Amino acid sequence: MSKIIVIGASGQIGSDLTLELRNRFGSDNVLASDIKNATDEVTSGGPFETLDVMDEKKVSDTLNKHNIDTVYLLAAMLSGSAEKNPKKAWDLNMKSLLSLLDMAKDGIIKKLFWPSSIAVFGPTTPKKNTPQLTIMEPSTVYGISKLAGERWCEYYFKKYGVDVRGVRYPGLISYKTEAGGGTTDYAVEIFYEAIRHSRYECFLEENTTLPMMFMPDAINATIDLVEAPAEKVKIRSSYNLSAVSFSPKELAGEIKKHIPEFTISYKPDFRQQIAESWPGSINDDEARKDWGWKYEYDLEKMTDIMLREIKKKLG
Ligand code: SER
Description:
This protein has 315 residues and is α/β, with parallel strands linked by helices. The chain has two domains: 4-171 and 213-240, Rossmann fold, CATH 3.40.50.720; 174-212 and 244-279 and 297-314, UDP-galactose 4-epimerase, domain 1. It has helices at 12-25, 40-44, 56-65, 79-84, 86-105, 141-160, 186-197, 215-227, 248-256, 271-276, 285-291, 299-314, and strands at residues 4-7, 30-34, 48-50, 70-73, 111-113, 116-117, 163-165, 167-169, 171-173, 199-202, 210-214, 239-240, 244-246, 263-266. The structure holds serine (SER). Serine (SER) is lined by residues 78-79, 117-119, 142, 169, 171, 182-184.
């Protein structure tokens, strides 16, 4: 049985991923770690260690101490926050990846999952059904760090045989842990505000269509890719991944079906420009072909579950 660590287990993806990994592989085999406190579900359901991913020595000591062979590296600064703190974002997003790639190269770990993003694309990329291989000129520091990271992953695979795998996540929607600092975060905030106040002021314009995905799909994709036989993983930079695409207006319309009095207004901020630089939909033929990826949740199903679960959570 492999021993797994999730670095960034308190974040939006990490909290859900930790629970599902424990579900599949047993609580004792999945160590959760983060610089911040995690949710009660994460800390009470299995081992947790406070860990700063920038502290290379502590990271390698932790991996050795727990005999870890598989790392899910999710600590990162997202697009909106990164624009406010470019150097810090570059430092965090790059140093953490390079140090884990080196640990894999040195045989301390066997497998590394690292998330890329639709942010690797830029204003010159074809916007619709964006292919795996295309023009990539990201205009955000987050996107630049993700594209550079992808190149490093492929380099370590080709040069040193490091087993590294990744996906380009679209905007992720979930109810366990709120997102923080991203451009697609509106699609999470909107649900909380709809339930709390029946209204939402959106920081993107009404027709800004972006690729999105419900968290259970993202978690399945992640674990399926990491568990796939190595020979099936043909792309070692990062796979395109796609589920649904919608605009704030379309999401608001879907919420209105459940909460008729819900209203939305629009006050675009600096994140509008970021959103406009990203594709509206993604072609994920490669992931489907190579390791059998297929999404399950559409906008309707996702909205229904989000509203139900957040209502429960807010009491
Ligand atoms: N969801 C991320 C963001 O908005 C993109 O990967 O920053």
